[in-house]
Amino acid sequence: MPSTNPSDPHASPDRKASLGGALRRRILTMHLAPGAVIDETELAEEFGLSRPPVREAMRQLAGEGYIELEPNRPARVTPLGYRSLRDFFLFAPVVYVASTRLAAERRTDAEVAELKEIQHRFRAAIRDGDVDGRVFENDRFHLKIGEMAHNAYVLPSLRRCLIDHARIAKVFYEDQLAARHPKMAEERDEAAAQHDEIIAAIEARDPDRAEALVRAHLDLSRRNMAMYAAPEGMAIRFDN
């Protein structure tokens, strides 16, 4: 019979799974900012775990690319700086195109139905003004396409790209930012419509159409990140 002692590292696989899931979501939605220190003691108390299973979860998250572990230093959320953004936009098209083309060729009807359900939740989050929900369901949408590719080499690379994709998307989906940039709000709606078109292309087993759509989808992210990083200068009047 499993132990119920919260200090037993083997007692609660559910709590360990909850810890990993919570950390992933907090990082993807930027509640844990890039570069932020992760306090093992606080997490152990929050999830009713001893330090060893917390460290085990940390090692797993480090292997997936969510956090960085260095000797004699506290764990930190993987940074997201200029170099990371540049590397993401250089490499992401390779992975996204490969996963989307393969999904169009290998998908099952059940997988298409699940992808449509994820898109339904994504649009519900948009309707409800749920920014974190938008980020999380957008991540689930692209991850599901990667799973539909049924390729053991593509999926790990896609998972790593999606960590930074989600954090970029958090900027894209912020309502306050969109209010200052009407073009960004329009393109956010366009991105949601592209999801529907990508689903249709995958369902039709049309890899060429799916590739064209996912390339356009990434271009939207690139343009909006540029808009955020290099906004127009403030208009300042100098009266005589």
UniProtKB/TrEMBL annotation:
It holds the Pfam family FCD. The keyword Transcription applies. Residues 13-80 form the HTH gntR-type domain. InterPro entries: GntR_C, TF_FadR/GntR_C, Tscrpt_reg_HTH_GntR, WH-like_DNA-bd_sf, WH_DNA-bd_sf. Keywords: DNA-binding, Transcription, Transcription regulation. The keyword Cell division does not apply. PROSITE patterns: HTH_GNTR. This is GntR family transcriptional regulator.
